[in-house]
């Protein structure tokens, strides 16, 4: 069974994946280094490849232990999706994904993680092009979420008839930086098509790391306005935003906004927000001399431990 998984709408170029959008393609790998394209096996593009990928992923998840005791639900394993952020070429995204698999998932035996790689331009001055690419990518990610939603709805029916066939995995998403904008727009598409009214909770834990989105995204609170924030809150059991005011990248991002709205990953939530949405100020969890604050959440031991607790579903009042 493969150890690493990737879905991407990047185009294929010599020696890897490019910065232009293309049809969704599906890849698996057994070992790293994952920023070496030859390590990956391409299953293909189109519905046949998508079906093969889903079958293989479901088979991998089916090997997880079935947790029947509700008191042990925090030990249920995950099938998670990692969505990388702004200014990441394909090799950067693959390398970060490999690190997350090792430091976050393998270290805590959390299950498996799938990389969703979108065509970020990987340019230091590419904020505006990346934002446009992020919005254009949303339908592709939504296609992945739609398939996940249909699979979960089918599992509900199956497990109702036979509890021994219950789903053995929680679903989660870790989105970094502008990957949160991709996720935000994709969830609106999926919620509109699949989940009005609410039928199943698509994502158990959504972890918004250094989110490059408006910090009033959830401002409607419990009032339903069919906003992007409503879509996220209704599709997810719990949403957690990790932020720090020390993030200079998001300070630059806010400077591109003509409406003066602050970034969620730099300033935290601007309330009121739905009850299942909360934030954590990670300023004191990041070493004073840490480099690259915008991405160091995935390298700092205290923020890694925090992410592991959140993914396990530990209550917010218990998380240390």
Kindly list the characteristics that best describe this protein:
single chain, alpha/beta, Rossmann fold, 8 helices, 320 residues
What would your notes on this structure say?
- The longest helix is centred in the middle third of the chain and has 35 residues.
- The chain has a single domain, classed as Rossmann fold.
- By secondary structure, the protein is α/β, with parallel strands linked by helices.
- The model has no long low-confidence stretch (mean pLDDT about 90).
- Strands 3-2-1-5-4-6-7-8-9 form a nine-stranded mixed sheet, sandwiched between helices.
- It is globular.
- Helix content is about 35%, strand content about 20%.
Brief account:
By secondary structure, this protein is of the alpha/beta class. The chain has eight helices and nine strands.
Q: Separation of termini?
A: 35 Å
Give the strand content: 15-25%
Mean pLDDT: 88
CATH class: Alpha Beta
- SSE pattern: EEEHEHEHEHEHEHHEH
Helix content: 25-40%
Structural class category: alpha/beta
Shape: globular
Physical arrangement of strands within the biggest beta sheet: 3-2-1-5-4-6-7-8-9
> What characterizes the major β-sheet?
9 strands, mixed
In CATH, the topology is named: Rossmann fold
């Amino acid at each position: 069974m493969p150890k690493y998984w990737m879905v991407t709408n990047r185009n294929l170029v010599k020696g890897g994946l490019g910065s232009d959008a293309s049809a969704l393609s599906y890849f698996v790998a057994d070992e790293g280094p994952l920023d070496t394209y030859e390590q990956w096996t391409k299953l293909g593009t189109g519905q046949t490849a998508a079906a093969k990928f889903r079958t293989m992923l479901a088979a991998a998840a089916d090997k997880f232990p079935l947790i029947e005791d509700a008191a042990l639900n925090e030990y249920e394993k995950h099938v998670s999706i990692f969505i990388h952020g702004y200014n990441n070429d394909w090799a950067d995204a693959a390398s970060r994904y490999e690190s997350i698999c090792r430091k976050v998932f393998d270290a805590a035996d959390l299950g498996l993680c799938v990389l969703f790689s979108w065509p970020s331009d990987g340019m230091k001055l590419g904020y505006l092009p990346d934002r446009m690419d992020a919005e254009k990518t949303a339908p592709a990610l939504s296609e992945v979420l739609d398939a996940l939603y249909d699979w979960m709805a089918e599992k509900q029916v199956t497990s109702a008839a036979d509890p021994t066939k219950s789903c053995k995995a929680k679903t989660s998403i870790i989105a970094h930086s502008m990957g949160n904008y991709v996720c935000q727009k994709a969830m609106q598409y999926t919620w509109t098509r699949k989940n009005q009214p609410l039928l199943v909770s698509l994502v158990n834990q959504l972890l918004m790391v250094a989110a490059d989105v408006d910090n009033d995204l959830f401002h409607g609170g419990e009032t339903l306005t069919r906003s992007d924030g409503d879509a996220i809150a209704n599709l997810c059991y719990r949403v957690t935003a990790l932020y720090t005011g020390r993030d200079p990248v998001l300070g630059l991002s806010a400077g591109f906004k003509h409406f003066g709205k602050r970034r969620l990953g730099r300033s935290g939530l601007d309330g009121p927000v739905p009850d299942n949405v909360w934030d954590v100020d990670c300023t004191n969890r990041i070493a004073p001399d840490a480099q690259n604050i915008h991405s160091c959440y995935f390298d700092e031991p205290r923020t890694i431990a925090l992410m592991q607790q959140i993914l396990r579903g530990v209550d917010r009042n218990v998380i240390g």
